[in-house]
TrEMBL record:
It comes from Panicum virgatum (Blackwell switchgrass). Residues 2-77 form the FAR1 domain. This is FAR1 domain-containing protein. It holds the Pfam family FAR1. PANTHER family: FAR1 DOMAIN-CONTAINING PROTEIN, OS11G0632001 PROTEIN. The lineage of its organism: Eukaryota, Viridiplantae, Streptophyta, Embryophyta, Tracheophyta.
């Protein structure tokens, strides 16, 4: 991106639609320092910078540059960290996102993730992400992975049901069809419950490493005083 290489942020300024408002016929992209001094954006006062690119539509729905103002009236960002402060450059590139995803899938802590990414770019100051942005990305990845794993889990349950007719599972949904609890038990466990289900304990001392969600077990004792598991439940909403 030109603005990244030179060292300034951009904003999408004026635009013009065609007659039936179906697509843009003109788009103006300006330096984020454009505008009056009294307007403040992202903690930086604007200094009426005139640098801009004006794009117009062609007849075949392409674009061409009709106006280009190169000169800036302010200092340009030089370091990686300075460039990352521009709101238009806060998005991480796909390679960095893939690396963060790979590290988190292998149970690397958020602190170590940031250290590894920083070393990839030379130093902590040149890192393309802050501590807060790493936390936000990791939380987003966790939600995505959770959704994928729940879907895979349900598919496994369906396969187990075909092999074990006594296998039972249930899903409790919350608002917006989000999953609150996921519970399952085998045919053997149900048979054991019918014989030894007089006393049951519910143990939620287990947590998965990646999601840090409570995993509960319904546990009983048979006539040989051996522990037996009746069912398992994954509590996705902690306050449930």
């Amino acid at each position: 991106m030109y603005s990244w290489e030179i060292g300034f942020g951009i904003i999408y300024n004026r635009r013009r639609m065609n007659d039936d408002k179906s697509y843009r016929s003109m788009q103006e992209i300006c330096c984020h320092q454009g505008g009056s001094d009294s307007r403040v954006q992202a903690g930086t006062k604007k200094v009426r910078c005139k640098a801009r690119i004006k794009l117009l539509r062609t007849d075949d729905d392409g674009w061409y540059i009709s106006e280009f103002v190169k000169e800036h009236n302010h200092e340009l960002a030089e370091s990686y960290a300075e460039k990352r402060e521009c709101p238009s450059h806060k998005q991480l590139d796909q390679n960095t996102l893939d690396m963060i995803r790979y590290l988190r899938e292998n149970d690397v802590s958020q602190t170590k993730v940031r250290c590894i990414i920083s070393r990839m770019f030379g130093s902590l100051g040149d890192a393309p992400c802050t501590k807060r942005s790493v936390r936000t990305i990791c939380n987003q990845l966790k939600r995505e992975q959770m959704d994928n794993d729940v879907i895979k889990k349900i598919e496994i349950f369906k396969e187990m049901k075909e092999k074990d007719p006594g296998f039972q599972w249930s899903v409790e949904l919350g608002e917006n069809s989000t999953i609150k609890t996921l519970m399952w038990c085998s045919g053997k466990s149900r048979a054991q419950y019918s014989c030894f289900g007089d006393v049951i304990t519910f143990d939620t001392t287990y947590c998965t490493n990646f999601y840090n969600m409570p995993f509960g077990l319904f546990v009983g004792v048979n006539n040989h005083f051996q522990s037996i598991i009746y069912a398992g439940v994954l509590i996705i909403e902690r306050n449930h």
